[in-house]
Automatic annotation (TrEMBL):
This is Bicarbonate transport ATP-binding protein CmpD. Keywords: ATP-binding, Hydrolase, Nucleotide-binding, Transport. InterPro entries: AAA+_ATPase, ABC_transporter-like_ATP-bd, ABC_transporter-like_CS, ABC_transporter_ATP-bind, P-loop_NTPase. Residues 25-254 form the ABC transporter domain. GO terms for molecular function: ATP binding; ATP hydrolysis activity. Pfam families: ABC_tran. Its EC number is 3.6.3.-. It is an enzyme of class 3 (hydrolase). PANTHER family: ABC TRANSPORTER ATP-BINDING PROTEIN, TAURINE IMPORT ATP-BINDING PROTEIN-RELATED. It comes from the Bacteria.
Length: 269
């Protein structure tokens, strides 16, 4: 297959949006060596334009989560630089993070979990304003009727929806997702992938998602970064058109990009 690095297509879809609410991310020659001596990330250079979606894929242990945690500021690179523009100044709520496990507080209802980041921000909003913002967010993720349920009363998919609502309620410029749907079945996984696309369409922030699922990466991303052994193997700009839905899966750009990502992951020549 011809490996063509198409220039990142400025999709009509996004250029029609009035506001691009994301930050661009530039990682330059970033490395991280843990104190154990493991070189988890080795001179990775990659970028995500503001308001675009990038997936990080690669075999287990290749450094995807470490890369994501460095972008989040949770790990400091041993070498290299990560620049986020407009900058994230460390204020609460500027980066949303969704983990594989929804990690909700079990003694708080769905809405109380979603108000939590708002409570942690030093804003002048009242409790009832925070509740109304959280209720709106829960409505956007399809949980308008479940706001007062506790985590144990929610299904796995619903808990993940709450987790996404909690990550987005502060209107972050960057959303980081670490294998968010890995624990869910295929149908739920596709539904929640569709939800992420819907939410991004309403407010095109910058998204970086770690996933093991090539089809998910291809369906959801503008750009796919393939890592192997801590290094960036290749960055693939996804030629699939926007908007995307299930009908894209049977079309050539989907299968071509899928095969390309797969062969880079396997290290085929
Ligand atoms: N806190 C840590 N201390 C020491 N080594 C670590 C730490 N976190 C990760 N590593 C190591 O760094 C390497 C990369 O790990 P990382 O979790 O980033 O990979 P990954 O691609 O996300 O893997 P997976 O797909 O299995 O989640 C692995 O060898 C891992 O054992």
């Amino acid at each position: 297959m011809q490996r063509q690095q198409a220039k990142l297509i400025e999709s009509d879809h996004i250029s029609n949006q009035t506001t691009n609410t994301g930050s661009s991310i530039d990682c330059r020659c970033v490395s991280l060596v843990f104190s154990s001596g493991t070189r988890a990330v080795d001179e990775v250079t990659l970028s995500v334009p503001a308001g675009k979606i990038m997936s990080l894929v690669g075999p287990s242990g290749c450094g995807k989560t470490t890369m994501l945690r460095m972008i989040a500021g949770l790990e400091k690179p041993t070498a290299g630089e990560i620049q986020i523009t407009p900058s994230i100044d460390g204020a609460a709520g500027e980066i949303g993070f969704v983990f594989q496990q929804p990690s909700l507080l079990r003694w708080r209802t769905a809405i109380e979990n979603v108000t939590l980041p708002l409570e942690l921000m030093s804003s002048s909003a009242t409790q009832s304003q925070n509740r109304s913002t959280a209720a709106q967010m829960l409505q956007q993720v399809g949980l308008a009727d479940s706001v007062n349920l506790y985590p144990h009363q929610l299904s796995g998919g619903m808990r993940m929806r709450v987790s996404i609502a909690r990550a987005l309620v502060t209107q972050p410029k960057v959303l980081l997702l670490d294998e968010p749907f890995a624990a869910l079945d295929d149908t739920l996984r596709e539904q929640l992938g569709g939800l992420v696309l819907d939410l991004w369409t309403q407010r095109p922030l910058t998204i970086v998602m770690v996933t093991h699922n090539i089809a998910e990466a291809v369906m959801l991303s503008h750009r796919i970064a393939v890592m192997r052994n801590g290094k960036l193997a290749e960055t693939i700009d996804n030629p699939m058109p926007w908007p995307r839905d299930d009908s894209n899966r049977s079309q050539a750009p989907f299968s071509d990009t899928y095969q390309l990502v797969r062969s880079v992951m396997r290290g085929d020549d």
